[in-house]
Structure prediction request, 300 residues.
Amino acid sequence: MADIGGINFEDVGARLRAHRIGRGISPEELAQRIGISRAALYRAEKGEIIKIETLASISRELRVSLPTLLGVGVEYISNALAFFERMRQVEEQADQIIGLFSPISYLVTTQYYDEILQDVFLESLHTDQQADANRLLKILSKRKQEFARRRPLLASVISSIDIESFLRDGLEGRHGLPFAVRAARRRAAVDEVRHIIGLLRAPDIGIQLGVSPEPFPSTSFQITRAGDQSTLTVSPFRLGHNPNISVGVGFITSAPEAVELHDSIARVLWEGSLRGQAAADHLENLIAQAKEQESNHPHD
Prediction:
């Protein structure tokens, strides 16, 4: 692994690849644009050292700053494809993951959730964006597969308030869907929450879940630890109900202050959260309340 002056070129290559994917540019096209061979670009994405002038040309073509590619300071990402690919790359090295994602961490969702998410994305996007949605689903699926294979420790805090909304609204990509579709999506939400209840009552090794009654931050975030390295990812993008995979600026950083501040938020929410049987019972009550509300207002 090449590491010169504190810059890890394997990480540089991973960022390069993520931003290329985010821009929808093939390796052949990018190599042609900057005047290098496909093999040279492949080596760059594998982390082999390349000239700074070449890296600068790549950054211009990908419309990302050179400091971001080098991992100097904060890495800003305005594209959901690039963001979730970078998240996948960071998770690939993780020993521990601490997550606050709404309404639940994607990593502990079922396979059926992925199937519905495809419909939800297509409902929410214009026709010319649907190819990006399919590429994003592949990245997300790979994240989940790698998590299941590697099994890093996961501590995830779930918002009780967000779960209430999730159960009430289900998984919808837009308003105005037919009643039968909305009813099916609410049932799908119930199934996902029941899956979480199962994990709370009979936890998988290495997975810790808490249900917090406190309000969550407006943006989701995740802290990954790999050895003595901690990385913070802050996401403006939203999966599930009324998804947002089009607009926003996420960021990734290992700056100690940013990691520590977000870690303190996670600790406070974790310490105040329900866990185990108490959390499972609470979610069962939320399901019962959602079903009662639906029976009282069957066509809402």
